[in-house]
Write a structure and sequence with these properties.
heterodimer; A: 96 residues; B: 484 residues; alpha/beta; Amidase signature (AS) enzymes; 11-stranded mixed β-sheet; globular
Amino acid sequence: MSLTRQDVEKIAHLARLSITDRESPSYVTSLSSIVEFVDQLSSVDTGNVSPMAHPLDGQRQRLRPDAVAETDHHEKYQANAPRVQAGLYIVPRVIE
Amino acid sequence: MLHTLSIGELADRLADREISSVELARHFLARIERLNPSLNAVITVTADEALSSAAAADARLGAGERGRLLGIPLIHKDIFCTDGVRTSCGSRMLDNFVAPYDATVVTRLKAAGAVMLGKSNMDEFAMGSSNETSYYGPVRNPWDTTKVPGGSSGGSAAASAARLAAYSTGTDTGGSIRQPAALTGLTGVKPTYGRVSRYGMIAFASSLDQAGVLSRSAADAAEVLKVMAGFDPKDSTSVDAPVPDYPALLDAPLKGLKIGLLREFFDGLESRNATLIQDALKLFTSLGAETVEVSLPHLPLSVPTYYVVAPAECSSNLSRFDGVRYGYRCAAPSDLTDLYERSRGEGFGAEVKRRIMTGTYVLSAGYFDAYYLKAQKVRRLITDDFRAAFEKVDLVAGPTTPTPAFAVGAKIDDPVTMYLNDIYTIGANLAGLPGLSTPCGYVDGLPMGLQLVGPHFSEAKLLSAAHHYQRATEWHLHTPDGYQ
């Protein structure tokens, strides 16, 4: 199944990825080839089979007591931030 | 030569104070300086940290402490967060990221006295089978520097094979430890899903990723895995089960071990590769094992299944890279959407973007059932096939890769051709099973690997089988020319 340029642009937008006009044709080709490759799954009989989300049966989400276990390290973690002010991450204005 | 000694031999010399950990660190650091330029295996060298860890290890040894990994140098794949040290994941997106904490794997090895020499090159965000997608350039195979070392743990493979460290850590989501180990003559182990903590290991596909080791022998791998493995409350998929004493179990008798010959592994296998595997299996039977033919009829679907599931999970995991809190941010974003789109568009390489987009597509409205849910059902069929096989045999054997190492640039243009390199390894990831590759000979002068896959938590059996094989062969002892 071939994807169109519009398909790829829509997917790129959903994924919040900018694709230049120059790059676009190569993504159309490669994504089409990948989708065609995985399309072979459609012919597999999976009648009564339940989907497998992860490989170990019987794993359950562990819970822990609702007690504070961490201390404030925000300065250390924010050392990697592109723009920080007063402990807040700065981004372009969102709300007009 | 210090760099051709096994972990056990190094541990003995350190214990006898014949050598110091500082000398050992200096020896390997000098090798990295001299030999890494031809390989591009190491992204970040942590010389100062290495020397101070080594000095601390010497103090512990001097005080009478003993440990198999104490004072011995390693290289970590640059996917493990290392406190205060750049952790790039092979990507421009994290080129400026200094990890503020240690991954559990790093913490455990550090506690055991391991000396980190640096962070190894890798395919970007662990997506690749040749270490050609790295922002830092391709890694070269020490057996032939015009060839790839495999991927995504290509830097770790090249580093261990070229003896730049005593061992290296890696991760395996679709074969990324086993395949590069096979292409570089190493023993590579991917444990059972949940055996080793993923805390601090940058996530690619959360239901498939596992940390493991690339080393020169099963005996070495056993020492490292014993320290790496174990329950971690910080990883919600970590399994709370005791860790066997892998080194102590290496000599368990091979007699009666039932090895499954997977028909689907041998179909279409190129003849020289098939001969090496058949010779290896003959050796196993001469050592007391039995071979039984088994079939996993859904196994050929493992590659398309993986290329739905893994991209889907990666599209979710990589959504955290948004230019806001850490990592690459584009210049002068006009609004928030532009910030996200250009930070990600510029920060990620082509293969990563392809996989994020594939994942986004298969998870999108209208396609979710046909692709993602369908793939999860086929995943169960593949897993059930393995389970049925393990009722008849103790482990299955076959080639790790379809071919020896290929030339840099040979396969990078067509993604699907590259994906088919993982044809033998992917099944184990889908089913969460442990797998190991051990060197078994050469094709065209390049190493080839024999793969063993076992039921959940059968690492001890896999390591022991490989250990017996290695005691009867010498492939794993060879060092590539120019790196001796």
